[in-house]
Amino acid sequence: MTMAFRQANTRTQVSSLRNSNASRRVALRNRRTSTCVAAGTGKFFVGGNWKCNGSHVAVEKLVKDLNAGSVTANVDIVCAPPFVYLPQVLGALEAPYQVGAQNCWVGKGGAFTGEVAAEMLVDLGINWVILGHSERRALCGEDNEFVAEKVAYALEQGLSVIVCIGETLEQRENGTMMTILNDQLKAIAAKVSDWDRVVIAYEPVWAIGTGVVATPEQAQEVHAEVRKWLADNVSSNVSSKTRILYGGSVNGKNCQELAGKDDIDGFLVGGASLKGEEFVTICNSASEKGSVGV
Known about the structure:
Blueprint: H1 3-19, H2 21-31, E1 44-49, H3 56-68, E2 75-80, H4 86-90, E3 97-101, H5 118-124, E4 128-131, H6 134-139, H7 144-156, E5 160-165, H8 169-173, H9 177-191, E6 198-202, H10 216-233, H11 236-241, E7 244-246, H12 255-259, E8 266-269, H13 276-284
Parallel strand pairs: 1-2, 1-8, 2-3, 3-4, 4-5, 5-6, 6-7
């Protein structure tokens, strides 16, 4: 099956999905209690997941483009290049950008060929790591409990974590979306007691790399449900402070409208993070939130 066919098929399915949005919105609202959950209060956050892309020359150009851009918004920014380019990016990327990794092992290093331990990232000077991305869940068989253990171990070693959650199109259409997301959150909450260094990235799997984006209303509804879950199952303080990012074909054209939603605290960006000028535009969409956070 070609990528073009998969994308066309996804678009057809999503078109059908959007036609029945109204009934799903009612169902989501009916599941909520009368408790009022405040929108997030954390500083806007943009992550750039470069995935398995680049070369020494391409990374050098991207870093140059990012450094040349003007980030005027009040925003935290973390760029996550492939492991082999971490030293190169660490040595060249300037503030306000920070550098993160795309993964780390679930425990202390040892006889785990191909893995990178959290301690190694800390030793290199890395402060952030992305864990639980849907591509690793699907392609590497990382289940909820394994992801939660990785999050807990990374936090113990002093790393801050961007942990990803998300549903497939089939799960959204068959009405199990919130059950899937809640199960992912429940596993993390069972292992994590200190949420100060945790950022949640909601990435609907059907919108990653397809060019199909959840509407701002769809994204806001899910973000509000995630925040409410945190309030009900962790604490109202964690619910308010934890930043919930949206990821899934975010680009320079749709970022401002998405950023304007109450419970969207930033983005985890894939393809557009490889384009310096466009990524700067996405970072500056934080201005839609005003001067939130410190």
